[in-house]
Amino acid sequence: MLGVTFSMPLNIRNNYSAQARAANQQAIAAEANFRSVMRKQRFAIQSSTDTLITYQKNYQRWQQLMNGRGKRSGDLLQKQWQSGDVSTTEYLLALQQRAEGLNAGIELQSQFQLSQIDWLLQVGQINAVLHQLF
């Protein structure tokens, strides 16, 4: 009785195509995620810019309207009341309306400044501006 053992190496080539496909899919997913983030940031910047421009126009318009009128209107109202041209009730009502107008201007200025800060945050320039200030 004779026993023979024979072994022959199988030449199976692994071209790593599965790993290449997986890496390619990961790269495509990363690129899609990047594009999504960029698109979202672009829209946020555009929205912030539009808001900033709107507040800027409104604030500049208010400044033009109030150019020195705030103090003059208060002085004029005081003189009219002291001379008896307006009653105390009318004077107080006019003072309240004047205060509301000035308060609206302060609120508009505040919103304008907040929109500037938001815009700087969106475009990533807030650190540069803060370094310039300090």
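Second entry:
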Amino acid sequence: MKSFRKEHLKNCIRILVFLLLLMLVLHRAYMVLNWKDTTGDYLSSLSQLYHTPEDTIDVVFMGSSHCYCGVYPAFLWRDNGIAAFDMSVSGQDRASTYHMLLETLKTQSPKVVMVDCYGLLFDRNLLEGNVYRNMLSMKTSKNSIELVKEYVEPEEQLDFFLKWPIIHTRFWEVGKYDFIQYEPSIYGRGALFSWHESEGEEKGVYDVQEAGTLTDENAAWLDRLIGVSKEYGFALEFFVVPFQITEEEQLQVNAAKAYLEERGIALLDLNQIRDELKLDSQKDFMDDKHCNAIGAEKVTCYLRDYLLERYEFSDHRGEEAYAYWDQDLEWYLHCEMKQKISVAEGPKEQLENILNQKNLITIISVEGTTDQADFLAPLGLSNEDVSAGGKWILRDDKLVKIMENEEGTVPYIEDLNATDALRIQYLGEGEGSNVQINYMKFVSPSYPITIVCYDAFLKETILAIHL
């Protein structure tokens, strides 16, 4: 009997250990496969929200991709130290806006909430990816469960509650940021930075003044948000980010504006002041529905002035609790620099954009005779340096020679971050791997000079010049 009980105990322990290991494996698999974006790629406004210190957000902008493409909190921070946040998700519909707002109010007490009205103009997401972005990105809670119940058909709700039946299909698309944290999904403030320009023609209708009939669903949504504002004590504003609107859509926006005005609430339709904003339908937009960074600056600065006329805000710049807003602005500035490099006319102009910039690592390799010594002078290399050849690193305005062009020299290796490594060596003139970041080889046998610029903040190579 004792032997039987002992063996039974061992079997129970084995089962418990197996179940524990299975739970650990499934947990790790879930962490890899779980949904990590609300805008595309790995950028998640919800992840950013969950990393934000409590009660630091002054202004919340709610909405769809129109919002995160058209409103950049970085500009509000840059100019006035206002801590703004885009709680926006691609395809954010009425139900999602309401529950995303409740999720935000769990940890934040904003003075103002501005809701983009694109949610008035559609009932259901047409893109499956947008359904997932809205339904799977929130932490599991009563709020997330109620969102699923409100939006998803009953026969599909269990899959969204468990998440695993949906996310396990991501197995074939996992990438680097499924295993490590994508840092902008910590310090970003909800915006998506882009300088892509639209190639389409202007088709919007902006002179419709009459109002249509507000649908019952839209009236209920507006009332619902008004109720939340009264319960939590924040000022509620509605707005429309400029896009090429149709006549039918404008009628519905006008109906909502009239409905809200009767209740003493403003709806700021920026489509109606496009001329005042000096918006260019191509240069200021990435497509017919979304602003690019140029348009977003015009929109955001107008909203900033609008808010400052109505509310008082503290300038939080320099306060430790608001460090993520500093990082968000730096992210924007580095993305802007990368954009300027990409459209620069020739290597000289490209090089001018990286001089005297922080968080850049510039590698210069001179491997043969060249008449381009003057080109390298702004980097700190003299004619004698160029004639002798070698490898240099320029970092924080300090130029350091790493090695001569001598075979057998010990390679220089530096971990740039957790995933990227720099290797500088000399294996012979023109060998591609003489300058290498991860598996990317930069030196070309056709050119004696190679300049590679790695952005340590963006964690990517932003420039490679051959001369």
